[in-house]
Amino acid sequence: MSSGNLVVACQNYNERLMALSLIKQISHLCRAIQRHRGLGMSLIAGYEEFEEEFSTLQKQVTRRMQVLQAFAGQSNNLLAPAQLEKLSAAWSTIERDWQGDSVMENFEYHSHFIEQLLQLMMILARYLERPVAVQFADANQDDGIVSQLEPRKQMFSQVGLLVFVCNQLPALVELVAKIRGLSTLASSRGSQDELESSKLRYFIQGTRVQHEKVRNQADRLLEVTDNNIQSLPLIKAYEFKLLFLMTTVEREILESKVITMNSRQLFELATEIIDVYLKVVDEGLSLLVNWQEQSLEHWFKYS
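User: That's the sequence. What structure does it adopt?
Assistant: Structure tokens below.
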């Protein structure tokens, strides 16, 4: 391998680690925005129970945005400047004069922002699909080495885990967060209009479908990750709590003429489920970092 090719390969390796760091930052930013959405909707509707927490969270989101922008600026355009500008504009729209929004306007502004963040996670995930050893092999320009360095099992395991932690599980989290926001609003207000009810039913249906995908993928990943994601079994363990959340919302909000469900209890139950899912995402990303290092060591050994 020439010194120039080695520099390029090392730069690619560093960029991969940066991509994983950005994915983790985006995941935590999504969590904060989802919570911001749920609290803000109740505040707009005139319920001040969450005001202090909302104010603290708004400052935290601003700091997270600043850090994400700074890290992305050092990542050799893993995220395009235009994408980062769209993020800044979306947050400015949410942050500016939010008290004047209608509840559903605020909900949609947040949801659009989160959709942008989830798309960025997938862009970064696609960049990471090939294990690092293959990139070093390419830089070495030694035909035939790739098959030695890249067993099919490792390739499929890495792609499968990336899809799980950057797409399937975040999509489920967002559905549960939407249920949390709309149900917390309804329980705070004691009522729900037809549009809100329709959306809530749609998100509950979507959650059931997405959870089935997540559960099946989690079962497969248990086999290929050698129990290195310790929280992964919690996906199955929390099935009952997720079912309880959805049936409670259906019974106490969608089917009840008088909504008396405690908004804080609903919010905290949904948040507990979301936090478990995000713990799985964090541990999955940590395993991906380890796999990058192992892949590099594999290249050292067999090149």
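The chain is about 80% helix and 0% strand.
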